[in-house]
Amino acid sequence: MKRNHKSMAGAALTAGLTALALAGCTVGPVTLPDVNIDLGFLKGIGIVTTSVADAEAAIRDVHECGVDPAELVEQGTLTVGLLPSNSAPFNATKQDGSRAGIDVEVAYAMADHVGLPVKFVTVSSASTSLGVDCDVVMGVPTSDAASSTDAVVLGDYAESAIGVFGRGKQGQFSASDLAGKTVGVQPGSVSERALSNANTGCVEQSFTNINEAMSALGSGAIDAVVCDAYAGCYLAVDYDGVALLGTLDSPVALGVAVSSSKTTLANSVQSAIDAVQSNGQLDIIKSRWVGQVGTLTSTSMLPGLEASAAAQDPEAAPTE
């Protein structure tokens, strides 16, 4: 039996910071660049608020902007770069052209604390876009900061990982339990390559998209699904008993990239991210999209897998 995203989101918001706008958008059908996942069923999910513009303005009014205008690509606005590779549930485009997703909502909340209105642009990478096309880039692996002298990655509001979904709970399922089981995958994806590299002895079954695979898992036609962890968590909420059992790789934390030369901007963004992560806003935002997934760490890997066994393959195809 399917569960209702709308009622779950409403309960979470009622329990928390109900008037913080949290991106302020009513999510409708979306089109997803560079991802083969149909999230058309998002129609009807939303929250009822006062005017979004009024709500955002009210929050910004209590936060004095401490960013030097000279450090912004567009004065008076925080221009936020979104990576097309970070697709739903991180970033999706609604039918009216507006944005939705975890990256979008975190950016709105962060901008409110910085004290600036937000503008979104699509960028190819942080290294080529910071300070030119945008002020910050969402969803950048924190590990990238170690290899860059031009940017810093602040916060760690989400994770990138390849998830294994089935019936059960994390910690109660090991890699050896996949032996002989039928596992749904999207052919040509990073997840399929990782599953093959893990050598679990499972039987792979191909599906056109993750939705079809999750539906088959929900009906009991297959035993498990391997796909992007956050995309899978979003879809799994609709099926009773289906949950993230663990990951095939060691999760990589995602944060906000800022040019290291923009001192006041970096300081303001760091303070804003700290606030969003500590005051409950991040928990509410994530619960709207992926339920109570918590923070994925190296301990989230399926027991019996070495960190290197299913590591991301640079030769693999793009994500689902």
What distinguishing features does this structure have?
320 residues, alpha/beta, five-stranded mixed sheet, 9 helices, 13 strands, 21% strand, elongated, disordered C terminus
The biggest beta sheet reads:
5 strands, mixed
- Distance between the ends: 25 Å
- Helix share bin: 25-40%
Mean pLDDT: 81
> What spatial order of strands do you see in the largest sheet?
5-2-6-13-7
Q: Tell me the total number of β-strands.
A: 13
What is the rounded Rg? 19 Å
The rough form would be described as elongated
Query: Order of SSEs, N→C?
Result: HEHEEEHEHEEEEHEHEHEEHH
Instruction: Provide the low-confidence segments as ranges.
Output: 4-52, 58-62, 307-319
Kindly estimate the percentage of residues that lie in beta strands according to DSSP. 15-25%
Number of helices: 9
Class by SSE composition: alpha/beta
What do you see in this structure?
- By secondary structure, the protein is α/β, with parallel strands linked by helices.
- 28% of the residues lie in helices and 21% in strands.
- The chain has nine helices and 13 strands.
- The strands form three sheets. The chain has a five-stranded mixed beta sheet with strand order 5-2-6-13-7.
- Helix 5 links the parallel strand 9 and strand 10.
- Helix 2 crosses helix 3 and helix 3 crosses helix 8.
- The longest helix has 16 residues.
- The C terminus is likely disordered.
